[in-house]
Amino acid sequence: MEQKIMEYMRRNSMAGKGDHILVACSGGADSVCLLLILHACRTLLGISVSAVHVEHGIRGADSREDAVFVQDLCSRLEIPLTICTVDVPEYALQHRIGMEEAARILRYEQLELCAQKTGLHTRIAIAHHMEDNVETVLFQMARGSGLAGMCGIAPVRDTGRVCYIRPLLCVSRNEIEQYLAAYGQKYRTDRTNMDESYTRNRIRNTILPKLAGINPQAVAHINESAQRLREAYDFMQEQAGEFYHDHVRRKEGVLAVECEKLAGLHPALRQEVLRMLLFESAGKQKDIAAVHVDAVEHLMELQSGRRLDLPYGVTAYREYGRLCMTGRDLTGAKKVVPFWVTAEQIASCRKNGEAVLLWESEEGESLWGRVYDRSACGEEFEKKPYTKQLDYDKIKDGFFVRTRQNGDYFVLNDDGQHKKLSDYMINEKIPASERDHILLLAQDHRIAWIIGGRIGADYKISRDTAQVFELQYNGGNFHGLHDKA
Questions:
Q1: What distance, in Å, lies between the first and last C-alpha atoms of the chain?
Q2: Are 72 and 51 in contact (CB under 8 A)?
């Protein structure tokens, strides 16, 4: 089973050598199994492991005993552990949401806080398995989700702030229990798992057994179908993203696209573009379902002036030949305070190759850096929009992080060809409303990195590079340009 999970992790690029894995451990069978396997395989994978336990304050003494159990397990395995205590009932009451949703929100909030404290190259491992994936697929189908919902749980999900991995999606609950039994490892059982007031429990305890009665391999087959759907959906998203980049315009908080261009798309592609419009306008994805996408699509057929109210205060309307959408502030008009990263700060990143916090905003955005020898890495670097590798000697004297200024330029290629940053942004079709809000790494007027996009060719790693300066920006793409390359 360990080999199966390691292969699944490699196939889905869940972790690389030097990464730190933060395991969300509740004390239940799934998370205990995940913790044991990652601990056993840490040397082969080249990773380090720690754990976090979120005590929800729901089940009284049982909940506190869960925390003690996880503490004892981590102590025996010599795994660093952080225990976070939250008040789910109070949060649910204040925000007028269900206990299940409140627990999920607070759990992920604590996981992300813990991950950010550990610094660079931390990934959060969640113990979802095959049955969890099927529950998600069935739940999304029942609530009227589109194609995205029926793809199930993603093996890897990078939010821009943190990266979630789910190594157990390739195994069943039965395999997990057999693994624990073989090792004589006990685990905690959450009695709320039998409470059928929770939707997922009704699916798990009632629907899945009936499906197994129709076909014993139903769970495996649904997982396989979800994977095929995910592969097809990934391709469709790529195509929709290209259309979105080329044809959606932003001005004064309004997203707009020509109806004629939308109408020329394949229906599935058109719906994906409309979904992307809704997500950007709302600033959220939860509770935006296929019914809302269908309503916006129907609006395209109506006369100019017709309007439609949607979740999160979003309004869609037809204006002459355009479909327009407005909701939250789409201008990104947040004041950016420039800051200087000193040579001393950069030099501090050389200590043992560990990540160093270079800057953090009040909103939780942060910039981390570390330095390591060029000989310690391969020829190729993983392409990520918010993590870049620069030549240490070319950046070691310090740099500003700021938005654009007159006179900024960018080195495009190894021949040293210069281009005005303003011209570059126009050529890349970056909307004018976004250009003043994208963060840049700059030395005087020379741009080293458009955060979320390219680095200057003159800062790239070369054969002459002795040390690599790796930077990671956390905070999504609020001030970043998403690099499609």
A1: 36
A2: no
Give the whole-angstrom CA distance, residue 474 versus residue 112: 11
Helix (H) or strand (E) holding 163: strand 163-165
How far apart (Å, rounded) are the C-alpha atoms in residues 30 and 180? 9
Return the structure tokens found at 426: 């126009």
Residues 6 or more apart in contact with residue 436 via CB below 8 angstroms: 403, 404
User: Nearest CA to 151 among 235, 228, 203?
Assistant: 228
| Dist. CA 28–CA 189, nearest whole Å | 6
Would you give the distance in Å from CA 97 to the centre of its chain? Answer: 24
Helix axes 267-282, 290-299, angle to 10 degrees: 100
**Which tokens is 278 given?**
């809704």
> Residue 216 and residue 207: Cα distance in Å, rounded?
13
pLDDT of residue 122: 85
**Helix H or strand E segment including 5:** helix 2-11
Q: For residue 325, which of 333, 334, 315 has the smallest C-alpha distance? A: 315
Tokens of 56: 């929800």
Q: What is the pLDDT of residue 479?
A: 43
Instruction: Say if CB 16 and CB 56 are below 8 A apart.
Output: no
pLDDT at 353: 66
> Could you tell me which residues come within 8 angstroms of residue 239 by beta carbon, excluding any fewer than 6 positions away?
269
CA–CA distance, 166 with 11 (Å, rounded to integer): 12
Tell which residue, 146, 128, 116, has the closest CA to residue 34: 128
Sign for the CA dihedral angle at 134, 137, 140, 142 comes to negative
Per run of 10 residues, the mean pLDDT along the chain (length 485 residues) is 94 90 94 96 93 84 88 95 89 81 88 81 92 90 78 87 92 95 90 67 87 91 92 91 92 87 94 92 80 92 86 86 77 60 88 79 80 73 80 92 87 86 82 75 92 90 90 64 38
Q: Which distant-in-sequence residues (6+ apart) come within 8 Å of 240 by Cβ?
A: 269, 272, 273, 276
Cα–Cα nearest to 480, from 165, 243, 158, 230? 158
332: phi then psi, degrees, rounded to nearest 5 = 70, 25
| CA 253 to each of CA 250, 297, 331, 429, 432: distance values in angstroms, whole numbers, following the listed order | 7, 21, 5, 18, 12
Q: Under a CB-based contact definition with an 8 Å cutoff, are residues 427 and 412 in contact?
A: no
The answer to whether 236 touches 225, Cβ cutoff 8 Å, is no
Whole-angstrom Cα distance, residue 427 to residue 173? 51
